[in-house]
Structures are given as C-alpha cells and as structure tokens.
C-alpha cells in the first residue's frame, strides 16, 4: 500500500538534475527562472532541478550567489559606518545603505539587522525597509538557493527546526540564518543536513527524525 | 624522451606511442566542488595533466575603471606550479601564462550570460600542478565545470581539446612526445557542443585544408565525449546522496 502511494507522489513532482545548456522542453510553455530560449526551444542556464511535468518551464538552481529580489526578508551585518547611517553586508554582490534615522537603535560595526528589500536596480543593488536590529545570537551561513527548503511549505520546516532545537530563529533569504538561545550546534547540523539533501523529497520528516535523535540513513 | 636523431613511429598499426587509437582521449577524471572556500571549483586529471580551478563571484569589479555597466568581466588567471614541468618553472607569470589567461578567459566569456552581472567580475583562478601537453584545453574544460558549479548562468558548458598532426597522421589529444614531433601541428580548440560554436582556436605549425577538415571533425567528436563526462561530473555531486538513500 505504502509503495503505491509513494509512486504517485514521485510521478506528480518528478524532478531531474539539469546542467547548463540542457534542453528543458521543445514545447511552448510559460517561462520561469533560469531558462532561455534558442530557436524555439527552452534550455536551462544553470545547474539545478527541472520539473518536466510542470506547465511552466523553470529551473531551481542548486548553487549560486544571492541576488536581491523585491520583498525578500534578509539578514545583514553592518560592515561600515558612514556620516548618516551604515553600509550593510547582505551576502550579495553589493552592500546596502541603511539610514541611521530608519532604526531606533544605534548602529555599530557588527550589528545584525533584518530588513525587507524595497526595490532592486538593474545592477542588483537593493534598497531596504522595515529594518529591525538584533541583539546577540549568531549567524549561520547556508547556500542561498536552498533557503526555501529551510522554511518549507507554510513554514513547516521552520517550526520543526524551532521545536527540535529550542532556538529563536530567523531565516534570511540571502542565506544567513540568525539563531539565539537553544541548541545552536544541533541546529547547524540540521541545516547542513538540509543543504546536503535539499533536492530530495520528504525532507521535513527526515529532519524531524534527526532532531529527535533517531539515526538518519 | 626520444633521443636525438632517433626516428619515432608516431602511429604504428593504428596505435600511437602511448597505445591509444588516433581518435582516443587520454584517461580523464573530473570532480566538482572540491574547494569549500570558493563559490565553485573543479579538479581535473587528464592523462598526466592535473588542474585545480576555483571560481569566485560574481562580485563587484575593482578597480572601478575596469567596470562595464553593460556586462560583467571574466578575469581568468592561469598559473603553472613550479613543479609542473621537468625543470623548475619560474613562478613569475611569463608571457605564455598571460596569453593563455587572456584567450581562455575569452573562450569562457562567450558561454556566460554576462549581461546579468553589470559592473561585476567573475574571478577564475586556475593552477596547473602537472602538465604534459594540452594543459590549456584541460584548464578550459575544468574552468567551465567550476563556473557551472558556482551557479553562474551559462548558455552551454565549454569543452576544449587538442588536435594535431604527428608523423603525418591526424590525431586527437596530443601528448608531449607527439607535440615534439618534427612535423607536429598542435591546435587547441574550445567548443560549445550544443551549438557547435568555436570559442578558442589556436595553431602551431602548418595544415592543409583537407587536414584541417579531418582534424576539426576529430575535435568535435572529442568534445562531445568531454561534454558527457562534464555532465556526469556535475550530476554526480547531487546523485551520490541519492544512492545512499
């Protein structure tokens, strides 16, 4: 019985690893991210996962630098102070400017902030809003393209992580995770597990088992 | 090494000096993601050649006057280790290394969507640990893997191979003995296999038109083989975990 159920799930969202320049489809489909058209055919432009049964041709990359997008929630570190604010490292190509007036707390070197991306220009520089300052805690760096797996559907993975480690957690879309209190060593191990197996199904179940101390094969 | 005035038969009964067929590549081993500190990396063994590549970026191109607001830069650095050749090599970058850095960078540039990264630079650092002819072809092949591993958008992987002539025969992937033949012709050629576009073509020696036709056919076939190996190496990084499951 169980096997049959698995089969259906696998067929529904079957995914394959594609390399740059690999043919995704020669049908007419809506185009998503990380694909390009040449002579009416759709090709992947990156190393990632493709979903052949989907009505949209797109590729989810398995690696790559974070490029800011509108409305992303990100975590940054103040790396330089200027006259009226600070430059914040957001683990992307460029740092962002943060006005001292936009936050109540004093910005110092190394201050951790979270913010949302207001807008991005054509050279991938971002403007931030909704800034909050964090006190204490630590930052764990993960692969930016795998962040959605660390949050899960409706935050399912996030709640599993919070419950299993007892940490205060904030996952930035730019690949930085802020964690405070709780078992951060265990959290790091769990995050590495997600990173390693981000392209497999039923990851939440696996991580839950890992956090409960069961052996994961 | 052959002695002076000794006559070598470069192709005998369809076999070459090292026992290969005329259209056979040397044994190749590729691995991806070997350097955790780089954004992307690759290690390649091609016969006796050993190449390690690390890719950083895209990042802001500095100094600022080097920036191009329309597209990104590829900064390719090809270096040979002092112990990579029989006599010690001076570690100072020489004429040859500067030239290879330039042409290899340009060969890879064609495959990357640089317009996505205005004002940015992609740094490719390549170190040759051991060399035995065809190191720039090995370098380009490995660098294209490392760039794909870094998640940088590309039109296609780039494969490079050497073709040429030794002892009057057109052969694929020359080794050092064949490259030193008196009538040797050596052509490193880099290809994007999907569209069959050539991104690098250099030549040492002289070729007739008919010879070139034959040689280019060999090169395209060799690159198809290489592309398969590259794809396999990239997929392997993500399939290993699946097998354990």
What does this protein structure show overall?
The complex is a heterodimer of chains A (217) and B (245). Helix content of chain A is 22%, strand content 34%. With 217 residues, chain A is α+β, with helices and mostly antiparallel strands. Chain A has 3 domains: 2-61, OB fold (Dihydrolipoamide Acetyltransferase, E2P); 73-134, OB fold (Dihydrolipoamide Acetyltransferase, E2P) (Beta Barrel); 138-211, 2-Layer Sandwich (Ribosomal Protein S8, Chain: A, domain 1), CATH 3.30.1370. Chain A has a 5-stranded antiparallel beta sheet with strand order 11-10-9-12-13, with no helix packed on it. A 3-stranded antiparallel beta sheet of chain A has the order 1-6-8, with no helix packed on it. A 3-stranded antiparallel beta sheet of chain A has the order 2-5-4, with no helix packed on it. In chain A, a hairpin with a 2-residue loop joins strand 4 and strand 5. Chain B has 245 residues and is an alpha+beta fold. In chain B, the strands form 3 sheets. In chain B, strands 3-4-5-7-6 form a 5-stranded mixed beta sheet. Chain B has a 4-stranded antiparallel beta sheet with strand order 9-8-10-11, with helices on both faces. The A-B interface holds A 17, 19-22, 34, 36, 38, 43, 45-47, 61-65, 93-94, 122-124, 145, 196-197, 199-200, 217 and B 39-40, 57-60, 69, 111, 113, 117-120, 148-157, 192, 194-195, 230-231, 234-235, 238-239, 241-242, 244-245.
Report strand % of chain B. 25-35%
Number of helices of chain B: 4
Describe the biggest sheet of chain B?
5 strands, mixed
CATH class of chain B: Alpha Beta
CATH 2nd-level architecture of chain B: 2-Layer Sandwich
Order of helices and strands of chain A: HEEEEEEEEEEEEEEHHEEHH
Q: What is the helix fraction of residues of chain A, given as a range?
A: 10-25%
Report the radius of gyration of chain A as a whole number of Å: 20 Å
**Global shape of chain B:** globular
Architecture (CATH level 2) name of the largest domain in chain A: 2-Layer Sandwich
């Amino acid at each position: 019985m169980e096997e049959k159920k698995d089969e259906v799930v696998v067929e529904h969202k079957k995914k394959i690893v594609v390399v740059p320049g690999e043919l995704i489809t020669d049908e007419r489909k809506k185009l998503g991210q990380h694909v390009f058209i040449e002579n009416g055919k759709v090709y992947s432009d990156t190393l990632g996962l493709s979903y052949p049964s989907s009505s949209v041709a797109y590729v989810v990359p398995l690696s790559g630098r974070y490029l800011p997008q509108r409305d992303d929630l990100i975590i940054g570190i103040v790396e330089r102070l200027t006259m009226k604010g600070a430059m914040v490292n957001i683990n992307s190509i460029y740092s962002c400017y943060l006005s001292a007036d936009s936050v109540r707390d004093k910005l110092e070197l190394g201050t951790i902030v979270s913010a949302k991306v207001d807008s991005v220009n054509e050279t991938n520089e971002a403007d931030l809003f909704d800034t909050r300052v964090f006190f204490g805690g630590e930052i764990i760096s993960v692969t930016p393209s795998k962040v959605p797996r660390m949050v899960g559907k409706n935050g399912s993975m996030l709640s599993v992580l919070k419950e299993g480690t007892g940490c205060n957690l904030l996952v930035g879309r730019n690949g930085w995770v802020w964690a405070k209190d709780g078992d951060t060593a265990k959290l790091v191990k769990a995050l590495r597990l997600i990173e390693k197996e981000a392209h497999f199904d039923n990851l939440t179940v696996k991580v839950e088992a890992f956090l409960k101390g069961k052996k994961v094969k | 090494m052959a002695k002076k005035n000794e006559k070598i038969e470069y192709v005998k009964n369809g076999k070459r000096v090292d026992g290969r067929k005329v259209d056979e590549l040397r044994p190749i081993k590729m691995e991806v993601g070997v350097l955790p500190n780089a954004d992307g990396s690759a290690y390649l063994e091609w016969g006796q050649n050993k190449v390690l590549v690390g890719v950083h970026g895209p990042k802001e191109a500095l100094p600022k006057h080097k920036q191009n607001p329309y597209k990104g830069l590829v900064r390719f650095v090809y270096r040979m280790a002092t112990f990579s050749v029989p006599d010690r090599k001076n570690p100072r970058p020489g004429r040859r290394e500067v030239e290879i850095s330039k042409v290899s960078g340009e060969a890879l540039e064609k495959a990357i969507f640089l317009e996505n990264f205005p004002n940015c630079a992609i740094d490719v650092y390549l170190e040759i640990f051991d060399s035995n002819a065809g190191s720039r072809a090995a370098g380009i092949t490995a660098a294209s893997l490392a760039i794909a591993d870094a998640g940088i958008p590309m039109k296609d992987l780039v494969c490079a191979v050497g073709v040429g002539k030794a002892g009057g025969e057109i052969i694929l992937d020359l080794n050092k003995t064949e490259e030193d033949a008196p009538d040797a012709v050596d052509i490193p050629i880099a290809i994007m296999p999907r569209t069959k576009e050539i991104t690098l073509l250099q030549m040492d020696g002289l070729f007739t038109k008919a010879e070139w036709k034959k040689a280019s056919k060999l090169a395209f076939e060799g690159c198809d083989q290489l592309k398969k190996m590259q794809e396999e190496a990239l997929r392997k990084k993500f399939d290993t975990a699946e097998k354990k499951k």
